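As a warm-up, study this chain.
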Amino acid sequence: MLAYDYPMMDVFVSIVALSLLVVWVFLLFRVFADLFRDHDLSGGGKALWIVVLLVLPYIGVIAYIYLHGKEMSLRSREFDMRRARPRY
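Now compare it with the structure written out below.
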């Protein structure tokens, strides 16, 4: 509607849509990485989250971050600390 009346608006809408897609893909990879780092979650729970992420991708990512955001941050810090520790 509005984007077809103004060609630059069409470009702007395309850039915003592409940016949101890139952000979502980044978050999806972070959530999958966190799922496999989580030792407290059982195998069935991980499988259920994977199904939710595949069936309802946007809602699943937002729900996972809302429900497990703090633990996700802590696991990420622990992982970074283990990687940064020198090995002798």
